[in-house]
From TrEMBL:
InterPro entries linked to this entry: FRG-dom, T1RH-like_C
Pfam hit, one: FRG
Organism: Maridesulfovibrio salexigens (strain ATCC 14822 / DSM 2638 / NCIMB 8403 / VKM B-1763) (Desulfovibrio salexigens)
Record protein name field: FRG domain protein
Domain FRG, residue spans: 58-164
Length: 415
């Protein structure tokens, strides 16, 4: 697991499980900022999570935004040119005027160039860097955008994906939050906004959405349920602020199963992008699932008998050596070779790399530390994915790797 989620007691990101009360935490760090956060250990917990009473106040309308990587903030594309993640008034004006001139003669409705909001929305559709962020009324569309793409093997560790939840009712109140605007364009020539239940927020000038919201809500005279926010205890603050904005980290596992589940709900590229781009993405996904590239099967692999492993002895310490690598090798052979996709030599090489990497993260009394166990599983999952082991065969190895390493350490101590 990423070091970000391996936190000291008292500063953990709470894990929510179905049937329990939702508890948020404010970590006040570079990744989560001052936004209240919570974790789900499976994408399957997302539906019961958004179905809780916490998000079903009839007087409040929430909107959602899914993001593939846990570390991404609420940063509009134009803000990435500023160096600090903030859209300045000058940057926004220069970009708008440039696009307004460039778009003349290229629009079906020439009057659009005089409507600033509509022109920004068109620019967003065509890839223009804008101060807009995409949101949706549908939590399942947000979940789709969080999980629709696989992680690249060249990327850094990404143990969680994320969905932001924003109180639209509150930010639409110009008296309370005048600097953050919601935009629902009048025109939707491509049908995407309708199909995605989509809308936009305008980022405020010279501030982030997060900073502007927390600035408003944490003011001394701001009232929460009839009581001043300033009177809340530190334990009450995260849950109170989460009613306005929060970030949900969702364990990055079983990505393909999540996408298939959403497709059964008619949430997929073909339905969300009713144009040729969406049709192409949808067909690409289907063909990828149907033709997962695998190495050539090995004949009679299922008849392979895992050999009895005799550990060599270190001539100085007289202790067995290479024990973990051999145990990992046995686990991989039983889990992968038996299905006929990898040679014994390939598995031996992978087992050595994996066991050596895991050894580096062993600390005193590691057998009893959940954080180390989680790290072992994530390292195993990432390494198997990088070696193109299909997801359905990675999972059994990931679930057993900790037990194997513990067992071999115990065996070493007994010898």
């Amino acid at each position: 697991m990423s070091d970000y989620f391996d936190r000291k007691p008292g500063n953990e990101i709470p894990v929510w499980k179905p049937g329990t009360e939702i508890k948020f935490e404010i970590t006040a760090d570079k990744i989560s900022g001052r936004i209240p956060v919570v974790r789900l250990e499976s994408w399957e917990d997302f539906t019961p999570f958004v179905s809780t009473d916490f998000f079903n106040d009839s007087s409040v309308e929430y909107i959602f935004r899914g993001q593939r990587r846990y570390s991404w903030g609420l940063t509009p594309s134009l803000a990435r040119n500023s160096g600090n993640g903030i859209v300045t008034q000058d940057l926004k004006s220069r970009q708008f005027e440039a696009f307004k001139k460039a778009a003349r003669g290229r629009l079906l409705d020439s009057n659009i160039v005089e409507e600033e909001d509509e022109l920004w929305a068109i620019g967003q559709h065509y890839g223009l860097k804008t101060p807009l962020l995409d949101w949706t009324y549908s939590p399942y569309v947000a979940l789709f955008f969080a999980f629709s793409k696989q992680d690249s093997s060249s990327e850094t560790d990404n143990p969680y994906r994320a969905v932001y939840i924003l109180n639209k009712t509150f930010i639409e109140d110009d008296d309370d939050v005048p600097d953050i605007r919601v935009l629902e364009p009048k025109k939707d020539d491509h049908g995407r906004l309708v199909n995605q239940a989509g809308l936009f927020t305008f980022s405020p000038d010279d501030a982030t959405i997060e900073n502007k919201l927390t600035e408003v809500i944490t003011a001394e005279d701001f009232m929460v349920n009839g009581h001043p926010y300033s009177g809340l205890s530190p334990d009450e603050e995260p849950d109170a602020l989460a009613k306005y904005i929060c970030k949900v980290y969702i364990k990055n596992e079983n990505q393909q199963a999540c996408v298939k589940h959403l497709r059964r709900m008619n949430v997929h590229h073909g339905s969300l992008f009713p144009d040729l781009i969406g049709a192409s993405e949808y067909c690409n996904l289907l063909i990828d699932e149907a033709t997962i590239i695998r190495p050539e099967p090995i004949s009679n692999a299922s008849d392979f008998v895992v050999p009895v492993i005799k550990y060599p002895v270190d001539p100085i310490t007289n202790e067995p050596v290479g024990q973990e690598a051999a145990a990992v090798r046995s686990l991989l052979i039983q889990s992968i070779l038996g299905v006929g996709y990898y040679t014994v030599e390939q598995i031996e090489d992978l087992a050595e790399k994996l066991s050596n990497t895991l050894e580096e993260y062993k600390v005193t009394d590691w057998q009893h530390k959940d954080s180390v166990h989680a790290r072992f599983k994530n390292i195993t999952r990432t390494m198997l994915r990088n070696h193109n082991v299909p997801e359905e065969y990675r999972t059994p190895v990931v679930e057993q790797i900790v037990d194997v390493m513990i067992r071999e350490d115990e065996n070493k101590e007994e010898q």
